[in-house]
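tokens incoming
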């Protein structure tokens, strides 16, 4: 309600692990705002690809939607998917062509910057970008090319840190290609 009051358009996000009340809230927002939703699937959700279709059918029924109402985000978090396996993972997704949008996200950014020396600039390979470029190079054989997503200059898992004890550097550079 606070987003609506501030006139901020939003798309609610849910995952297969959400409790019933959360799913009901997403359904209510979708019915009110008519913007659909985002479904975030983790790599662990893809491990049971045979059961995924049934889980998704159940979710569609609960939300009273079809895949074309949903932005599908496949989120690998801090693990970059293997270049060779990624096309097969994408092609195995149920309703692959029907999703409103499809995005693959991951991050090779380190959990902290302890490996970077003080007053140093270092370049890191963007493994998630390289994996997506590899996928794009196979776009003629992949049924649908997903959009690229990453965590920029953040690690997907936020560490509990006492910032008073950190040795922070103001500048960090990454190399995309």
């Amino acid at each position: 309600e606070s987003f609506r009051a501030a006139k901020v358009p939003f798309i609610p996000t849910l995952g297969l692990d959400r409790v019933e009340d959360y799913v009901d809230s997403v359904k209510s927002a979708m019915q009110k705002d008519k913007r659909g939703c985002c479904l975030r699937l983790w790599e662990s959700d893809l491990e049971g690809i045979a059961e995924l279709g049934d889980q998704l059918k159940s979710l569609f029924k609960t939300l009273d939607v079809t895949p074309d109402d949903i932005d599908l985000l496949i989120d690998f978090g801090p693990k970059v998917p293997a270049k060779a396996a990624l096309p097969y993972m994408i092609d195995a997704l149920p309703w692959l062509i029907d999703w409103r949008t499809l995005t693959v996200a991951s991050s090779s950014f380190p959990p902290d910057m302890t490996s970077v020396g003080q007053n140093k600039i270092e370049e890191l390979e963007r493994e998630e970008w390289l994996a997506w470029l590899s996928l794009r190079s196979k776009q003629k054989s992949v049924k649908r090319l997903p959009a690229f997503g990453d965590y920029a200059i953040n690690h997907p898992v936020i560490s509990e840190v006492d910032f008073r004890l950190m040795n922070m550097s103001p500048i960090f550079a990454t190399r995309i290609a």
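note: The first helix runs from residue 2 to 5.
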